[in-house]
Amino acid sequence: MEIRKLDENVSVSSMPGIADIAAAAAAGYRSLVMNRPDREEPGQLPVLALRSAAASANLAFVSVPVSSVTAIHDTDVDHFVRAVAELPKPVLAFCRSGTRSATLWALDQMRRRPREEVASDLLAARAGSDALLKKLESWERRRQPPALAHQIVIIGGGAAGIAAAASLKRRGKKLDIAIVEPKRVHHYQPGWTLVGAGLYPRAGTERPLGPLLPHGAALVEGEAVRFDPEHSQLMLKDGRLVSYATLILAMGIELDWTAIPGLAETLGENGVTSNYTFETAPYTWELAERLKGGRAVFTQPPMPIKCAGAPQKTMYLACDHWRAKDRLNDIDVEFHTPGAAMFGVKDFIPELNRYVDHYGIEPHFGSRLIAVDGPTRQATFAITQTDGRTRQETRHFDMLHAVPPQRAPRALRESKLSDAEGWAEVDPETLQHVDFPNVFALGDCCSAPNAKTAAAVRSQAPVVAENLVQYLNGAPLTRAYDGYGSCPLTVARGKALLAEFGYKGKLLPSVPRLLNNPVRATRLGWLIKRYIIPNFYWAGMLKGREWLLKRTPLNSSSHD
C-alpha cells in the first residue's frame, strides 16, 4: 500500500490490509475514510473487518462509498468533505487504487482553486493519472456557469479601475465595459494618513462602490483567479469564465502582513498600528494622542510599495503633534528603512532631512523590520552593515507604526501576464502589455518604474484609455505616460512638500508658478493636500476629468 499525501489533512492510498491499518496508525494517521463500496469484488476485505482493525489501532473509521470515478456527484464530494472536517486529522482515504479518493479531494479543491493548480498538486503527490486529469477537465466544463463576454474588461474597482473606465466612457459612451471587483465599497486611501493624524474623518474615506462607477459600466462582483491571455479569457473565483476583446489590469498591490512574523497577530493593539488599513488608521491617532514619553518607531519595507512617502508622513505629523503638546523631548523617534536616504528622488532629500533634524528623528538606514512581539513590545530588525553583512537587532517600542512588504496580487504574479517580479509587464510609455497587445495595465500592479501613487493613476488612466481606443480602432497608439507621480509629504500640520516627479526622478511640478520652489514644504502644498486633492479625486479622477493633465504624444521613433 503506497500512501500519497495530498495536503496536511488528507492522504490517499489503495485498499489496505489489516497490517497496513496498524502501519498507518504508527505513521501518525488518526482516521480512515473508505471510498469503496463493501463487497465491490470477490476477496475484498469486508467493511466490518476494516472497521474492527481501525478500532484496534485507535483510528476513527467512516465509509463514504462511490462506485466509480464517473459516478461521483457533488453530493459525494460534500459527504467526503464533511467526513474529513469532522474526523481527527490527518486522514487516510482509500479505495481500490486511491483514484476515487484523490478525485473527491480534487473536486472539492476545484471549488476554490484553478484546476491546473489542483492537477499539479495531484501529480506532485503521484496521485494523478492522465485519465483522472482529463476527468477533472470534463467536470470543470460541466460545472462552469455561463461565460460572460465584454468588449473591455477591467480587473479591479479601485482608483485605477474606476479612473480608467471613466476615461474610456468619455471617449466612447457606447463602449461595452465591465469592472470585476469583489468589494462593494471604495476607499480613498490617501486620506488614511490624515485619519491617522486626527485631521480627516475616517468615514470620509469610504463610499459605496456602485454610484462611483461611470454610467453604462457593468459591475461583475467577483475575484479573478486565473488568466488565459492566449484565449482572451479569465476565470473568477466562483468558476465563471469571462471573455474579453481587451483587458485592463488595475489590480492594485497586495499587502503581505504575514511576511513579518507576529505583525498580523498584534496589529491594532499592543501599541502596533498602521495607516495602511481603514481599520487601524484611527488607532494611529489614538496612540499618538496617548503617548507622553518612550520610544516611537516608524518603519518602511523594501520597495516597491504604494505611496513610498506615507510611512514618513505619519511620523512627521505625529512629531508635530508631540511638539505642540511639549512632549517631543520625552519621545525617542526612530525611522527604520532599508533604503540609504529619506526619499528616492534626490532633489527632495535636503528638505526632508531638515525636518528630520527639526524633530530630532533618528534615521536607521539599511534597517528592515522582520518580526514583532506585540505583548512584550519588541520589534526585531535586520540591519545591513556597510560591509554588506547583516545583523539582527531587537528594539523596545511604546508605539510602532509598521508598513508590511508588498507584492503583486497572486493571480497576476502566477500568470503569463507578469514579469519576473510578478507585475503586469507593460511598455512604460504606452502601458500596453509587451506580449499581449489587447492587454493594458495601470496603477500599482503594472511594471512601469514609476512611484505607486494615486497621482500616478490619474496620469495613467487617460493614457490607457486613449491607447486602448486606438487599439480597438486598429490605429497606432498615440499617447505616452511620462512616469508622473506625486507624493504630498505632510511634514507638519499646515505644511507639505509637493513632491512631483517622473521617470528617472525628473521634477514635474504641475503648478510651477504657484510653487516658487518645488522642493520646499509650503502652506500652499498643505492646502492642496488637505482640501484640493480629495475633491480632485472624487469629482475629477474618478469621473474621467483630465484637469491640469498634460498630454504627451507618443514619439514612435523613440518608442521603437
Automatic annotation (TrEMBL):
Pfam families: BLH_phosphatase, Pyr_redox_2. Residues 151-270 form the FAD/NAD(P)-binding domain. It comes from the Bacteria. Residues 3-109 form the Beta-lactamase hydrolase-like protein phosphatase-like domain. This is TIGR01244 family phosphatase. It comes from Pacificimonas pallii.
